[in-house]
Amino acid sequence: MCVADLESHEVYRDDALIDAAPDKTFRILFNTFTADPSILFSDQGYVRYMTVVLTLNNIGVTNNISMVFPDFPLLTQPELIGGDGMFCNNTHRPERCKPRHACFCLHRLKVALNDVVEMSLIDDAEVVRDLYHPFHLHGHRFIVTGMGQLPEFRTQSEKVDFVERSRRYARTMPSDHNPPYKDTVSVPSRGYTRIRFRADNPGFWLVHCHFEWHLGIGMSFVLQVGEVDQMKKAPRDFPRCGSYKPDIYSQL
């Protein structure tokens, strides 16, 4: 049974969330790929990877971006954010990133406070595997409005089109449908899961695969909800963070 078919025992029901046209819609295609060993340790090499079996050096991506975390926490030290230029997404990539190649940067998606947000999480794998990716959203809870597996498509646009055609809004469900709220959900292998939530908690929130090694190799992104001046401020005596890596070139 799919999560989208379950009923909640929770009395509270947000009908406006279920029926509303979303203010922001995102299609998140995720996958892992094998790094090319010939450039892995060169000047054009990759930021990080994980060796799974012998020569299989895996790197994780969402929308062909492998997440690079900043040296400081965005929420508690926002004064260090160097403008929107320090962020990237699938339409705004650094100039150093080549077309149709994985890009290593700080992946951020931004929504306004109280937006109704819909995300389609799409497993971009070529084959069906035993592995289901559990995706977790920090700071919010969501309802699941659709789930299924993809046919054997060759392109990402074909996969997105299929997911769009498979929409399953509450209007096609029983009028008393009361979906459960979740903060983590599995995405079927070579499949998709569509979630919907109200972005009512301002801040910078991580969205990631909950396999820790997938998170470690870049399968994540940051969801910014609202503007910095709408977010809660850290206490004055809150610990501050920075880069822990020494500047090796200054020691030479």
Automatic annotation (TrEMBL):
GO terms for molecular function: copper ion binding; oxidoreductase activity. CDD domains: CuRO_3_tcLLC2_insect_like. PROSITE patterns: MULTICOPPER_OXIDASE1, MULTICOPPER_OXIDASE2. Residues 105-226 form the Plastocyanin-like domain. One of its GO terms (biological process) is iron ion transport. SUPFAM superfamilies: Cupredoxins. It comes from the Eukaryota. Keywords: Copper, Metal-binding, Oxidoreductase. One of its GO terms (cellular component) is plasma membrane. This is Plastocyanin-like domain-containing protein. It comes from Anopheles stephensi.
